[in-house]
């Protein structure tokens, strides 16, 4: 694609609330720059979902600097994705390839129930 931007397929866990059963939704992430962070990629996807009148993907974040841990999620079955020792907000899209399918799940555990989509109750 032009300027080395990537088109990706996302399979993201969507769940309305604690009591409802969730399921994977498929989204297209188009024109993603390799320099974006994983959360910035979500921002782009959410902007187009909102423009289409669809519900954005709910995810947690605070610092976006790798400090708070709020952005914790499972990416392709691994905590925080393919890179060891970095948080999702510090993960760059250059860690993925054009055309990749990325599976994104909440930070699941019995102690941390899912509140909505990728947002878990950590308190
Ligand atoms: S948003 Fe704070 S560690 Fe990622």
Q: Under the CATH scheme, which class? A: Alpha Beta
The run of helices and strands is EEHEEEEE
Work out the number of β strands. Answer: 7
Question: What percentage of the residues does DSSP assign to strands (E)?
Answer: 25-35%
Number of helices: 1
| Tally of domains | 1
Per CATH, which architecture? Answer: Roll
CATH topology: Ubiquitin-like (UB roll)
In quaternary terms, these chains amount to: single chain
**Helical proportion, percent range:** 10-25%
The residue-averaged pLDDT reads 93
Shape: globular
CATH 4th-level superfamily: Beta-grasp domain
Structural class: alpha+beta
Order of strands, main sheet, comes to 2-1-5-3-4
Q: What would you note in describing this structure?
A:
The protein is an alpha+beta fold. The chain starts with 5 loop residues before the first strand and ends with a strand. It contains one helix and seven strands, in the order E-E-H-E-E-E-E-E. The radius of gyration is 14 Å and the shape is globular. A hairpin with a 2-residue loop joins strand 6 (114-116) and strand 7. Helix content is 11%, strand content 28%. It has one domain (2-120): Beta-grasp domain (Ubiquitin-like (UB roll)), CATH 3.10.20.30. The chain has one helix spanning 38-51, and strands at residues 6-14, 23-32, 73-75, 78-79, 101-106, 114-116, 119-120. The strands form two sheets. It has a five-stranded mixed sheet with strand order 2-1-5-3-4, covered by helices on one side. A two-stranded antiparallel sheet has the order 6-7. It binds FE2/S2 (inorganic) cluster. The site of FE2/S2 (inorganic) cluster (FES) has 13 residues, from loops.
């Amino acid at each position: 694609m032009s300027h080395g931007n990537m088109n990706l397929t996302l399979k993201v866990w969507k769940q309305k609330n604690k009591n409802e059963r969730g399921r994977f939704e498929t989204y297209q992430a188009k024109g993603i720059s390799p320099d974006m962070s994983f959360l910035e990629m979500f921002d782009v996807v959410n902007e187009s979902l909102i423009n289409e009148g669809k519900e954005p993907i709910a995810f947690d974040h605070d610092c976006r600097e790798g400090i708070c841990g709020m952005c914790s999620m499972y990416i392709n079955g691994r905590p925080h994705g393919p890179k060891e020792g970095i948080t999702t907000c510090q993960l760059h899209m250059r860690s993925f390839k054009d055309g990749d399918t990325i599976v994104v799940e909440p930070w699941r555990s019995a102690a941390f129930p899912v509140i909505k989509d990728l947002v878990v109750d950590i308190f």
